[in-house]
Amino acid sequence: MTERHLNYIAGEWQPAFGGATFEDRNPADERDLIGLFPDSAATDVAAAVASVASAWPAWAAQSPEVRADVLFKAADLMSLRADTIAAELTREEGKTLNEARNEARRIAANFRLYAGEALRLNGETYPSEVAQLVLSLRQPVGVVAVITPWNFPLSMAARKLGPALAAGNGVVFKPSEITPLMGQRLVEVLLDAGLPPKLVALVQGKGAKVGQAITAQAGVDALTFTGSYAVGKQIAASLSTDTRVQLEMGGKNATVILADASIDKAVATIERGAFGLTGQACTGTSRVLVARPLYAELVARLEKSAAAIKVGPGTSEGVQMGPLATRAQYDKVRAYVGIARDEGGRVVGGDALPETDPALAHGYFVRPAVVSDLPENSRLWREEIFGPVVAIRPIDSLDEAIRLADDTEYGLAVSLVTGDLPSVLRFARETQHGIVKVNSPTTGVSLNAPFGGLKHSSNQAAKEQGGANVMDFYSRIKTIYLGA
Ligand code: ADP
């Protein structure tokens, strides 16, 4: 029996208007149909926005303790359900069970952090010559649309839903069509924790259809999006000018290895950043700049350790890297491996896993790839691949490292492996990236520290994650002059 999942609109679980559906399949075995989900369109969006618009003022008028309480309960429920949801995440997105558990278990911490922020939605007072007292009051924005990608389907959504609800907003949530079940699980947790039924709407479906309908729908006061630059740009162009918008997009992140670095540490740092989550993290390492004296040894060591990574279904014991999340991702990664070869690069790995292995024959498995000796202006060096492919290039100075690390349209995360403090300080100050990590991979961030990129990685409306700074996007300030 195929499971048929539903939207959640106006407090009711319901199919898309007209009844259309789309399939959700397991990337480790595409014969495994997880379920059918509503293929929603503009009519569903209109109903969702109308119901959320009717519900948020009462939620905003509640005491902050009530809002915090719901998020604390959601955190407890998420902790209880984390392992079950993690298994579903592996089935739906492909990441290993370890990676899935890490993601699912973090959601509780995320909800707790924002539960606290509900109680700290502070304003300020200002000395004034025109009134007895001038103060700023933070109020909700209203209806917040949340559009998320598939690679961290729980944490990308929780880091938006948590602060949006804490600040007193209502939410229309459209998860990625690749991971609709994870979107549903998050909404179930919030509803079971006592969220008012009409305050959140879950609208499942395709980006080009329901996603676009959200950007065209009147009544959306703010939209927060994480995904590709191409889609982010399209969203920004189609929104009305009075809709507040936050866009977090791609990266072409580099790790720099200076001459004093230990090769062991360099290999471990690159491997985690480049091949963790099958290379499908927006902060993933796709370029390495290494001091020339270490180049040959680092290339050889990385080739060897990448070849030893055990690739397979995320549920299997000992597997270190799961499949790519979709057939499109699989085709894209393999195409880039071909491009690297055509460009004259030395490529080790990157091939599809033998389809003769029955456990792998129906999934999107590729070996991690290490690419060296690329020419200048290589496409592999410039374009975001979003897969387990890392390109390596030698450098001759810190100046060159900074110049080449920043020689990209993106500016999300960059990392540096060295013990040389003056180099660290100069690099950290000068690089055009939103996140700089020293002696650690480009991936892996703290949920209580500001997150966001520069250049094409973000529209830089407000940082995500972190504490009070997050509320700048989810609330607006009214200035009140009190006279007597
Ligand atoms: P990714 O492939 O990394 O998920 P996308 O940018 O393609 O990146 O998708 C991110 C999210 O944006 C998904 O939920 C997707 O359905 C949605 N989306 C795609 N196209 C549009 C669009 N034109 N308008 C609004 N949302 C869209």
From TrEMBL:
Taxonomic path: Bacteria, Pseudomonadati, Pseudomonadota, Alphaproteobacteria, Hyphomicrobiales
Superkingdom of origin organism: Bacteria
Catalytic residues identified in the record: 248
Stated name of the protein: Aldehyde dehydrogenase family protein
Taxonomic source organism: Aminobacter anthyllidis
Domain Aldehyde dehydrogenase stretches: 20-480
Protein's UniProt keywords contain Membrane: no
GO molecular-function term, one example from the UniProt record: oxidoreductase activity, acting on the aldehyde or oxo group of donors, NAD or NADP as acceptor
Keywords: Oxidoreductase
SUPFAM superfamilies hit by this protein: ALDH-like
Pfam families with a match to the protein in the record: Aldedh
Family designation: Belongs to the aldehyde dehydrogenase family.
